[in-house]
Design a protein that fits this description.
It is globular, with a radius of gyration of 19 Å. Helix content is 29%, strand content 21%. The strands form three sheets. The chain has a five-stranded mixed sheet, with helices on both faces. The chain has a two-stranded antiparallel ribbon with strand order 1-3. It has a two-stranded antiparallel sheet with strand order 6-7. Helix 5 runs antiparallel to helix 6.
């Protein structure tokens, strides 16, 4: 197993967080037009993270949420918003969590806390030496990422190769094979972003806590692989569909 020093040397030291509002990319322009849309929509959830997801699904906004949960955070039940742009609505949701900020990055909207986004113990900053998927589904791309994480943290278990396989709901839009990309030295964050961008129908969410970032080493370092064959960080993110998939609609029509 790699030492803490070796793992730490693979972590990112800087994260680019520049907002992009004038990119000549069709998808970027589409995202911006969605954020500029006028609305009176109010999310019904009590928690800010769930409110952000509601807005993402309502307006089909691909989003990456890295949420830092504070134990002393105020419970939020109602969003103070009387109408305006979708961007203003999102800012209203974050009003009580001012340390979180919104950034438009190409085809995705990111929400994160500047305090921990580049923290060396933030597992999203771990680097994967090489990652590649071709005509893969979101579920398959996720399975590949989990395998790569396992191979990095438990190399002794993969001396003789590895097997494959993954599951998911039969009617999930995440079975669509529309993901192809490769790269070297990509962070887990970058891979999750690329998976969601390529799929085009997803939000991903990670919840972080100050406790897991405290101490003199990452809490996941040195933890044995679990009974399901996964590293402790392999279930830390959640993909959520923005809309019902066409496959699900077809299954419903067939069942009638």
């Amino acid at each position: 197993m790699k030492t803490f020093t070796q793992i730490l040397l693979t972590l990112t030291s800087v994260v680019s967080i520049a907002a992009v509002w004038s990119v000549p990319h069709t998808s970027s322009q589409t995202l911006i037009s969605k954020l500029e849309r006028q609305t009176e929509f109010l999310p019904q959830s009590a928690l800010p993270v769930e409110q952000l997801i509601e807005v993402a699904q309502q307006f089909k906004i691909p989003m990456a949420i890295e949420w830092l949960e504070r134990s002393n955070a105020k419970p939020q039940t109602v969003v103070t918003f009387s109408g305006g742009s979708v961007l203003q609505l999102l800012n209203a949701i974050l009003q009580e969590s001012s340390e979180h900020q919104l950034v438009v990055e190409d085809r995705m909207l990111r929400v994160f806390s500047q305090a921990v986004v580049s923290h060396p113990f933030n597992f999203l900053n771990l680097h994967i030496s090489r990652y590649q998927v071709t005509d893969e589904s979101l579920l398959g791309a996720q399975a590949m990422l989990r395998t790569k994480i396992n191979m990095m943290l438990y190399p002794e278990l993969y001396k003789h190769g590895y097997g494959g396989g993954y599951g998911g709901a039969a009617d999930s839009g995440f079975w669509v094979r529309n993901i192809s990309f490769s790269g070297q030295d990509l962070t887990i964050r970058e891979i999750l972003m690329k998976i969601a961008e390529a799929n085009g129908n997803a939000v991903w969410v990670v919840r972080l806590s100050p406790e897991e970032l405290a101490g003199d080493k990452p809490k996941w370092l040195g933890v044995a692989i679990n009974e399901y064959g996964h590293a402790p960080i392999n279930d830390r993110w959640r993909f959520i569909a923005l809309s019902e998939c066409e496959r699900s609609k077809r299954l419903q029509l067939t069942a009638r």
